[in-house]
Amino acid sequence: MANHQLYDYKQSVIGPIFLEDQLLPGTLEYAIHYIVEDRLDMGVFNARYNNDKTGRKSIDPKLLLKVVLYGYSRGMVSSRNLEYACERITTFMALACNKTPDHSTIAAFVSSIDEEIEDLFTMVLMICHEEGLLGGTHFSIDGLKLSSNASKEWSGKFDDLKKKQEALRRKVKQIVKEHKKTDKKERGQSTTDKARHEKRIKKLTIQADRIEEFLANNEPKIGSKGEEIQSNVTDNESAKMATSHGVQQGYNANAVVDSKSQVVTNAEVFGTGTDSKNMAPMLEGARNNLEAIGVEKPLEGIQVSADTSYYSVENLKACEEEKVDAYVPDQQFRKRDVRFQDADRHRRSTDKRHQKYKSKKRYFDVDDFKMNEDTGKLICPAGQELYVKNRNYTNAEGYKFIAYQAPKTACRDCTLRSKCLRKPKTEARQVHILIEKRPPSITDKMREKIDTLEGRKIYGKRIGIVEPVFGNIRSCKRMDRFTLRGKIKVNIQWKLYCLVHNIEKILNYGQSFAVE
Ligand code: SF4
């Protein structure tokens, strides 16, 4: 019979901790320590400190950066948790070199490195380049919608927010009135009730004041269509956006990822749910970062893939300007793909409300109207001649047609009306015969390109390039919510996460870290 020693994790152990021994080569903590200590130029932080002659000695930013990067890699974003970890967890103690930075120091450090983070990102990208992790042949762009540190309940147009504020004030008045009434009636109202009421009044008043202050200091947000869109009292730079988890108040975190080792070459957040204008800033950012590390003409001729949410004239023009070989499909590209023709055969809608009504009725189309070559007249299925209404009709897409119309008298008593006219009130049928196509637009060219076998093959690579990066950050690094507020600070958090991702790539695939 086995006779094991008893053990108990609820105990303290006193003994020496050799800090260097905690950072084992081959681990992420070692990679962070080595890269920050030996390969990053931390002089970018020098301008922040002015305490050489007077003032207290500060904690070296190297230590703070190591703690923050390692904390982010473990899903620890809270500065209080990081402070606790530096006091109690040996890996953090080793990275912080047994210093115990206060949570306010860590929080202030993270939220203020908006300028330095750009340099840090470029320096880590440079290491990726030196380690042979950049292929520079195919980039994929995508966006990850993550919740902001703001509730969607505090969103609304200015009128809605004003109404909310008035409702809160009314509620306060009502509580005070009820409170007085009860007080008169039952003289001996318990002190707990009184305290509860006062607490509630205080809370509602603070909320109403907050909205009032917001309305006084901000202008209504205007969307791309020139109409007012919803503002948010807590973080007005975030936006309500539709995600696979429902509508959430958040940021759209974008990344440009290199195909060779899935290194992030540019990372940026946007306070809009749509990606239709994101291509230009993302490509420009990637180009600047790569040029900064010495890559010449980094985007010229390279393949760039992005999903259907990036399909817009603006984005495609941005690709053209950057001279990239773009693969951005439209929403309908799978419907045109023969491989997906019977993709829906086993799919059954779970909710009947989502089933679209499809009319089985077939109306006469252009092909049912025949041209009499001898007379040059267009003849309808009932044998009536249509007359030319407009010889040079151009539709919204720029195509040119001859517009024909049947005589009202012919259609009025026609027995085929129900097969020809979609609306009973229509007096006469019109038919447009195409005479001239417009020159292919930028979107036509993209559709044609995506519909080729080669186009589909190249676009198919996208999912294996950018999605694993988001999977790593969201699931492995547990980044499902930004904890800072405001676009600048949220951008820092997103870049820090992408930095951790790139450092992990250096650790796993870099030549310096290769196992002999
Ligand atoms: S409705 Fe008018 S156009 Fe249509 S088939 Fe009858 S006559 Fe011809």
Radius of gyration: 32 Å
Query: Could you give the distance between the termini?
Result: 44 Å
Largest sheet: 6 strands, mixed
Ligand set:
iron/sulfur cluster
Helix fraction by DSSP (H/I, runs of at least 4):
40-55%
User: How many DSSP-defined strands?
Assistant: 15
CATH topology descriptor of the domain at 138-148 and 247-336 and 451-489:
Nucleotidyltransferase, domain 5
Average pLDDT figure: 91
Low-pLDDT ranges? none
From the spread of the alpha carbons, the general shape counts as extended
Which structural class is indicated by helix and strand composition? alpha+beta
Number of helices in the DSSP assignment? 19
List keywords for this structure.
516 residues, alpha+beta, Nucleotidyltransferase, domain 5, six-stranded mixed sheet, 19 helices, extended
Would you kindly provide a written description of the structure presented here, covering whatever features stand out?
There is one protein chain. The chain is an alpha+beta fold. The strands form 4 sheets. Strands 1, 6, 7, 8, 9 and 10 form a 6-stranded mixed beta sheet that branches. Strands 11-12-13-14-15 form a 5-stranded antiparallel beta sheet, with no helix packed on it. The protein has a two-stranded antiparallel sheet with strand order 2-5. It is extended. The mean pLDDT is 91. It binds iron/sulfur cluster.
